[in-house]
Each structure stands twice: as structure tokens, then as C-alpha cells.
Amino acid sequence: MEIPTYTFDAVNPNGKVVKGKLDAESEVGLVNKLSQEGYVVLSVKSISKKKRGMRLRAKLSDLVLFTRQFSTMVNAGVRIKDALNLLARQEAFSKSFGKILSEVVISIDGGMSLSEAFEKTGAFDPVLINLMQAGESGGVLDESLSKLSKFYEDSKKLKDEIRSAMAYPAFVSVFAVLILMFISLFILPNLFKAFGNIKPGGIVALLINTNNYISHNWLATIMFLAFAFIGGAFFMRTPYGIMTKNILLNLLPPIKKLRRLESSSSFSKTLATLISSGVSITSAVEMAANATSSSKLINSVPLMVDTLRNGGTLKEAMEKSKYFPQLLVEMVGTGEETGRVDEMLNKVSEFYDQEVSVKLKQIVSMVEPAMIGVIGIFVGFLAFSLYQTMFSLESGAGKHF
């Protein structure tokens, strides 16, 4: 049985009116949950979970530019509808993102709130939706958009650093494959034509057989490679693909530690942004965990939420998950004692961002010589095999004269 979802308006323990969305067995159950957390519920509304057609999430680069410009316009007093119309026509965004903004404008004309219009598109993450809800209810939409802009900019900066660091190893790998293909397809066939029909052996024979197969089945080979690439890319975006990728990457201790630091940084950053905007702590923890790519952290969310709902602190909930570094847990505890959890989380996320950069450079510095060494060993082995084969072919050819 599917648990229904409700939207609610409530006054949080700090006296601020907030909006949110939660799953609960009934309206009474939702009110009881929120009351236990110190909220005074003003209104509750049931919403139906409609199935939408498949739509990809908005690109991070579009979100960075959009939230920055939208925040500036709203802060300058431009009407929301006019600002969205203007942004939808900008060429700086992708065409798909421009269409999404046009859909938002149409939904607003139909009487929806800004957050409801964005949620309807299915292209935006829960962090953006909830911060917009908080901004609308508190009359501080420009501040919420400013927080979103910084959140997405920091996320993009970290992802760009990782992509930049992995660019060289990826280039070397692709270059090595291309060289191998060039040798197999063009050099070896011409080389062995000089020695008649004598069959080579070992790795050289494998390359020659591969070349013969590709030459006679080039269309099927291209179709297979295209299908494998597209299918692999699609699979890696599915839950099973993400799980497979996580398992493979976690087999390497340096990569496992790096991914844990990255997930801790992402969790801290997202949680700080949500808490500072008045989102309930349980909803914030769920969204912050889902914003990471760590299946282990996501699976620990029910335990963390149960701890919080039973009166436990955020520090206790994070300790029970057994995922987070001790420094992060202790800083959260200090933040709870001083009433500045969001500030502590932001400081920790900045620290972990720096740690990720340092660890990434260390890993790349180890990967580069290792890859060069592997390629060198392979090329040396190939040259040795070629030498042995040519020597055997020369001997065999000499016996025929």
C-alpha cells in the first residue's frame, strides 16, 4: 500500500512559518509527527502522486546561471512572471531548460504558486522546490534564491574539479586504445603481407584476428559499439548502474575514501542550506542524503529519521548511521549546543571540499605514472611479440627458398 503524501503549513520551534511535504499514514499521523518535533500545524493538504512522463533533471550549469540571475532580478524588484519570461528567452540556457521555464510561467498563470509550478515540471530537485516554498512562505524569496545560487555554484565547482583532474587519465586511456586500434587495423596487416600466409601467434595473432573480423563485419561492429555505449550510459543512470559503479569504485581504498569525503561535503552543504531556510530537520536529512551518490548513506536515512523523531539529536542520528567522519559529527554536536548548526555544517563542507581537492590531486599524481607504466609495459610486450613473430616468419620464409 502506497503511503499518501501531504503538504503542510506550520510554525517551527523558532516561530517561523514554513511549508513542507511529508509522507504519512493519515493527516492525524502527520500532525502528531510534526507536533513531536515542536511544530504548530496550521494546515494540511493531501496531494496525489501522479505519474509523469520521463524527464531528465535540469543540468547543473543551467541551475547555477538561472538561480544567480533569478535572484538578482527578484532582489531588484522585477515581477516573478516577467523575470521568468525574460530568462526563458535567454540563449545562455539550453533549449530544453528554456522550455521548462516557459511551462513554469504557464502554470503560474493558471494559479499555481512558484514552487508548485517548478515541482510540476519534474525537472528540478527537492532542494530547489523546498527552498522556494520556504522563501515564498517567509517573504524572503530573494534570500532563498541567493542560497540556492551559492549551493549550486559550490556543487558545480567541486564536480568541475573532479572532471578536470580525471581528464588527463581519461585522455591517456583513450589515446592508448586508439594507438592499439591503429596498429591492429593498419600497420600489422601490411606488415604481414610481406611474409605470405604464415600465421603469427600470441597477442599478435589476436590483433590480426580482430582486424580481420572488423574488416569483414565493420557495420555490425559499429552498431555493437554504439549500442554498448548508449546502453552502458543509460544503465549507469539507473539505480542498479549506480550501485554497480559504487561497488567497483569502493574496491579501491583511495577512491572509496575520496567518495566518502565528497558525500560528506555534499550532505553537509545541502543540509546547511535546507536548515537555514526553515525546512524541517527530518525532511532536510532525507533530501541531503538523496542529494549524494552514496547508496550506503541513503540506506541509513530511515535509521537517522527514526532517531530524530524519537527525540534524538542530529549528532546522535549521524553517529548511528556509522557513515560520517568523526570531525563532522563532533562539529554538528557543537553547532547544536550553540544553536548554529547551519554555520558549522557550512564550515565543515568547506573543509571537506579542500580535502577532496587535495586527495584528488594525490590520486591523480599516482594514477598518471601508473598508467604510463602500464601502457609502457604493454607496448614493450607488443614490441617483443612483434619481434619474436617477425623472427619466426623470417626463419619460416627462409626455409621456403
Describe this structure in words.
The structure is a single chain. With 401 residues, the chain is mainly alpha-helical. The chain folds into 3 domains: 5-47; 60-124, no CATH class; 151-401, Receptor-associated Protein, CATH 1.20.81. Helix content is 74%, strand content 5%. The protein is built from 17 helices and 3 strands. It has a 3-stranded antiparallel sheet with strand order 2-1-3. A hairpin with a 5-residue loop joins strand 1 and strand 2 (17-23). The radius of gyration is 28 Å and the shape is elongated. Residues 49-54 have low confidence and may be disordered.
How many domain units?
3
CATH topology of the largest domain: Receptor-associated Protein
Query: How much helix is in the residues?
Result: over 70%
At CATH level 2, the architecture of the largest domain is Up-down Bundle
Unreliable parts: 49-54
Mean pLDDT: 78
| Amino-to-carboxy terminus distance | 84 Å
SSE sequence, one letter per element: EEHEHHHHHHHHHHHHHHHH
The largest sheet is: 3 strands, antiparallel
Q: Tally the helices: what do you get?
A: 17
Under CATH, the homologous superfamily of the largest domain reads Type II secretion system (T2SS), domain F
- Number-wise, the strands total 3
Q: Tell me, what is the CATH class of the largest domain? A: Mainly Alpha
Structural Rg: 28 Å
SS class:
mainly alpha
Shape: elongated
How big a fraction of the residues is strand?
A: 5-15%
Widest sheet: strand order? 2-1-3
